[in-house]
Amino acid sequence: MPKILTVRAVEAARPSLQRRELPDGVVPGLYLVVQPSGSKSWALRYRLGGRSIKLTIGSAGVLELAAARAAARAALATIAEGRDPALVKRSARTQTLETFEIVARRFIERYAKLHNKSWRDSERILQREAVPHWRHRPVASITRVDVVALIDGIVDRGAPAMANRTLTVLRRLFGWFVERGTLELSPCERVKDPAPETRRERVHSDAELREIWRAADILDYPFGVVIKLLLLTGARREEVAGMRWSELAADLSLWTLPAERVKNKNRHEIPLSAPARALLADVPRISEFVFTTTGVAPVSGFARAKRRLDQAITPPLPPWVLHDLRRSLASGMAALGVQMPVVEKILNHVGGSFAGVAGVYQRYDFAKEKRHALEAWGRHILALEHGLTGDNVVSLDALNLAARG
Predict the structure, then answer these.
(1) Which of 15, 34, 361, 372 is the most buried (most CB within 10 A)?
(2) 78 and 86 in contact (C-beta within 8 Å)?
(3) What is the CATH class of 7-82?
(4) What pLDDT is attached to residue 399?
């Protein structure tokens, strides 16, 4: 039986005129290889499919005895699964030579689309921020210095929040390849977020909401309608963008979001107000998706539409994002006297009034209250469009008079 190798024995192993292999008495098949030059390495010998195979594990100057044994045991576990660790290693080496552009595409297809509802955002960030810099770089050649330089460049152009988002996506991408054994270490390791995250509190005034609503009219289908529905429903951008005709009631009075399309995985019903129904009634039915530019996928490309929207508003509004419309609806409804539990149900929040025990035992759906609140909000938005203001919910009669005037 082979002697058990020790750290001292590994250090004391001397070269000879011939290549030497010193077997380990702990892990079967593990050898310390000592070359005539004095270099030392670890190797694993095993049989698979009737063949004798040698797998080089690594340099003994890099891998200590304990690490070599761990690597050998991992290889033996791979063999027990019926796979050849040598082939796995060659495949991983081939993938590390692949360019970042190819790797980024594989990450989106095999991971992000399956595990991240906002995968389109991740894809857009990679294509805009990382791929242009590392397009033809082998993924294994990208270092922590490269990551820091990329992130610093985004910060320097005045986009610290985007720098944070980019680093988050890169961490996920490289971490996934480490988990798959393609990379030994993520180049994002120990790279900190470049800017502190601040909670957004942007809420639009009635005057700003009026300008956004009016400016949305200049946008072609489907973007103008999408932005107006964001304001009327308080739904998230991806929820509205991915709306399907099958989710809508025949009379367009109700929009039912299935659990798989909702952030908190809770099926969500949104009563549609008269203005929302009027918008949807004019949308052409060209696909299963209500909003599409291709006929086969939900609408995307909101960055360009947002720029056109901003350009149509004079004087320009302070910086804002589409998600601010959701917050503005919540604040605006509160100003109209809508109770917070109803607002939270409209937004499909699971915390707040419905956290803890209340979330477990409170099962009332607030359907009637949600409809009344959204109808009131819809009337309020139309009143703003017609230049009517006031602290109270505007009546339909007032709107009709304004329209006739």
Answers:
(1) 34
(2) no
(3) alpha beta
(4) 40
State residue 373's pLDDT score: 96
Q: Which residue has the tokens 């429903």?
A: 233
388, 394 in Cβ contact below 8 A?
A: yes
Please answer whether residues 280 and 252 qualify as being in contact, where contact means their C-beta atoms are separated by less than 8 angstroms.
yes
CB 144 within 8 A of CB 191: yes
Q: By the 8 A CB rule, do 282 and 291 touch?
A: no
| Other beta carbons less than 10 A from residue 146's beta carbon | 16
Query: Could you give the percent of the chain with pLDDT greater than 90?
Result: 60
What's the pLDDT tens digit per position in 85-126? 877 776 655 555 688 999 999 999 999 998 887 888 899 999
- Surface-to-core class of residue 319, CB atoms within 10 Å of its CB (0-12 exposed, 13-18 middle, 19+ buried): exposed
Instruction: Provide the pLDDT for residue 35.
Output: 93
CA 155, 311, 385: angle at the middle one, nearest 5?
A: 125
Q: Output the DSSP codes for 92-118.
A: HHHHHTSBHHHHHHHHIIIIIHHH-TT
Could you say which DSSP state residue 47 is in?
E
> Could you tell me which of 44, 8, 37 has the C-alpha nearest to residue 23?
44
Region at 213 (left for phi over 0; alpha for psi -120 to 50; beta for the rest)? alpha
Q: Which residues, including other chains, have CB under 8 Å from residue 397's CB and lie 6 or more apart?
A: none
Residue with tokens 């908190």: 264
Best CATH choice for the domain 206-404 from the list 1.10.1060.10, 1.10.443.10, 1.10.560.10, 3.40.50.360? 1.10.443.10
Which of 297, 287, 300, 298 lies closest to 245, judged by CA? 287
249's tokens: 């009631």
The CA-based diameter of the chain, rounded to the nearest angstrom, is 105
Residues of the chain with pLDDT below 50 are 355-362, 390-405
> What residue spans of 242-394 are helical by DSSP H?
274-281, 302-311, 324-335, 340-347, 357-361, 367-385
Neighbours of 85 (CB within 10 A): 23
